[in-house]
Amino acid sequence: MSTTVSAPQIHSRVQEFIAKPRKMLIDGKWVEAASGKTFPTYSPATGEVMAQIAEGDHEDIDRAVKAARKAFDSGAWPEMPPSQRGRLIWKLGDLIEQRLEEFAQLESLDNGKPLAVARVADVPLAVDLFRYMAGWATKIEGNTIPISAGSKRAKYFAYTRREPIGVVGQIIPWNFPLLMAAWKLGPALATGCTVVLKPAEQTPLSALLLAELIIEAGFPDGVVNVVPGYGETAGAALAAHPDVDKIAFTGSTEVGKLILQAAAGNLKKVSLELGGKSPNLVFADAEMKSSISGAANAIFFNHGQCCCAGSRLYVEQDIFDDVVEGIAEHAKGIKLGHGFDPDTSMGPLVSQEQLNRVCSYLEAGLSEGAEAIVGGKRGEGQGYFVEPTVMVNTNPKMKVVREEIFGPVVVASPFSDIDKLVAEANQNEYGLAAGVWTTDISKAHRIAEKLRAGTVWINCYNVFDAALPFGGYKQSGWGREMGHEALELYTEVKAVCVAI
Ligand code: ADP
User: Fold this and answer.
1) Does ligand 1 have an atom closer than 6 angstroms to the CB of 171?
2) Is 380 a catalytic site residue?
3) Can you give the residue range of the structural domain that contains 156?
4) Ligand 1: does its nearest atom lie under 6 Å from the Cβ of 353?
5) pTM assigned to the model
6) Helix, strand or coil, per DSSP, at residue 430
7) What's the number of domains the chain is made of?
8) Any catalytic annotation for residue 273?
9) What is the tens place of the pLDDT at every residue in 151-190?
């Protein structure tokens, strides 16, 4: 297994980018942390320090919020016609596309994912998101309302306006660093908000390159501020800040609850995209080949580090052994290695912490009586590798069946009764996504209706589109990312009533 990468493989601009400590972007300027501190970001493939980043904390967040407040209240941004706002967002998408290779390399180096995946998924999806949201800038409309109040003598004309919510704090995770920044920034900018973005401490690099392009695109100073730092310090300060009007968070359900508590101080609006333990249901009438590779990709894509990973697999009894063996064969064919190695199909997990977490779930599953028919342990090498794993002999009480693992581990169980299956699929605190594999189209739609999940994929999985809303039922979150639904999270509705 190759876990190192030779310098010539790295784009010269990427080498330059990581060679010197990166600063943070506040009010259109690159600045050091107020404390002067930096923190390291590690290569997940080798465990070595890759770059140093300015470490934001309370004071930096406060400066960034002041800049965002100033940019929201006065200056060019609130005066800018929506069409021009849209053009800036579109231009940002173009600039990212022009630097696709650099972004893909930064994602692979910082997160560990295969470079080939970042090239075809993370970066193009981010470009699409900005283009989609650019179009919305000119379509944030209110209504005229035929109200019944009044009389023949007192008449009223009433309408609504959708106005930007204000200064928005955005806290994002490390699994799709650039794409998560795009999901957050796109709707905020389309609606005319200003932003303080805190990238995840494990993967701050692509957000900092994005910040360079935000300046290059011509956004006014202070519209987007990027403050890297740790969650307990910079993130907590942003969530609690009294001058932030809304906080948008993607990450664990545990931290989502802390965000909610921190936001209570000034009752800022909150949207949350949290964890999942998504059921993936394979029926005996499914097309075998595509459901096996689909169910394998549902869990192994991005090393299982997807909040919507299809991590609970339910297979109809008659075909259980065949499907599970098929997925195990697929897992055996997955080559672990450095994201830059063209043969690599799965890179390392993002961090030592994540490696420990996933390994402790593997141990818990095995000690509770589950059997790993493939994988089940740490991968070889000094990086944070885990073998793709399929567990059978599970039951609904096991930790590995109830809790989100966020690694390449699927738990499989057989079913024979559809009603019991739906109840079991829904028997979880999360409700982010689900998959259904069948050639019976009526059954597919009936089951899709019954599943308590924000997304249901039928005969496919992990299909994302900027126009398709994404978010969770139950403890998987509040609100939706992408689609026009996302715009609602960034606007306030004002009712205007005029006596005429
Ligand atoms: P994960 O468990 O997947 O690493 P987290 O929910 O811990 O995800 O982190 C997601 C994001 O939330 C990161 O940007 C992290 O820095 C931030 N974060 C972590 N703890 C807090 C906190 N107490 N307050 C605000 N943000 C936090």
Assistant:
1) yes
2) no
3) 7-274+477-496
4) no
5) 0.98
6) strand
7) 2
8) yes
9) 989 999 999 999 999 999 999 999 999 999 999 999 999 9
